[in-house]
Amino acid sequence: MTSLFSPYRLKDVTLRNRIVASPMCQYQAHDGLLSDWHQTHYESLAKGGAGLVVVEATAVCPRGRITPGDAGIWSDSHIANLASVALAIKDAGAVPGIQLGHAGRKAGCTPPWQGGHPLAESDPQAWQPVAPSALPYMAESPHIPGEMTVDEIRRTQADFMHAASRAFRAGYDWLELHFAHGFLGQSFLSSKSNTRSDQYGGSLLNRARFLLETVDAVKQVWPGNLPLTVRFGVVDFGDNLEESMAESIQVLQWLKDAGVDFVDCSLSLATAGEPVPWGPNFMVPYAERVRAETGLPVGTSWMITDANEADGFVREGQLDLVCFARTLLANPHWPFLAARTLNIPDPESVLPTPYAYWLQNWAG
């Protein structure tokens, strides 16, 4: 069996293969509640053969939503629908994961297909975002966040802790904290968005303090036998790429010491207009470096579409898991096609029994 289809164990959780359905925001929730849309979406990804299915960025508090349609986990009222999704993922043979997030200064916007712009102040759904510093994401934007007080920082960390508790109660076995893409955690870490002069600003350790304390808070309620992971913006493709990478390596070493088990290596996107070199597999070398220099197991996504290449990344020790987003949106059964491409002796074995039966026994 090829590396892409070998099982992967982290703590007490075993994935049937190395294929991860990345968290992809659907913006279809109402008051944070998951709907039939989410139930069908995540169940199809699990039935398609992924080893791990990570539910989209789920807001730990209402003002942490990217849009009004974001999934939420700030209330016990969210648990039942989240639990239904987790159970469906498990029943299809995959491990259910969930990503906890706070959008920070990128909160309070329209969905991307409506432009992703800040909600108009006159919109009854609009709210003021918060951030480490009162700096808008877009330099000339009137969407200026409120600078968080220390008390607000503490409350937000408590929000993450309570959200982690709800995630466990809902049946999720893999927890990911979203510290990437210019959202709140990344905004604290980046000197471009954090100009504070207190214990949360200035030095790298101070800028990393929010992340480290948040992990400590979550560890109080998240079981030690289950993976605690982060999605982390490991590189800023601006003027000081190498400096940003070196800082990320240091912060990830601190996070590892704090109890983080795995890192999904992603982009910083700390500021608008970052010159990202978009292209197939472009994040793999950065993830490989993180793995080599921190000893943390890693995954990454971003334009990985070829089964042979994905298999090679695992086989050659560049990645432990391979994350797919649009590839699985286009075809949730991509794992079956990948198994055929890689000449797995019994490619039907990667699918749930009903699908495998009909593929093996029906010639049409």
Automatic annotation (TrEMBL):
Keyword Flavoprotein in record: yes
Transmembrane segments: none
Highest taxon above the source species: Bacteria
One Pfam match: Oxidored_FMN
A GO molecular-function descriptor: NADP binding
Keyword check for NADP: yes
InterPro entries membership: Aldolase_TIM, OxRdtase_FMN_N, YqjM-like
Domain NADH:flavin oxidoreductase/NADH oxidase N-terminal: 3-341
Co-factor requirement: FMN
Alphabetically ordered keywords of this record: Flavoprotein, FMN, NADP, Oxidoreductase
Protein name as it appears in the record: NADH:flavin oxidoreductase
Organism of this sequence: Pseudomonas laurylsulfativorans
Highest classification ranks of the organism: Bacteria, Pseudomonadati, Pseudomonadota, Gammaproteobacteria, Pseudomonadales
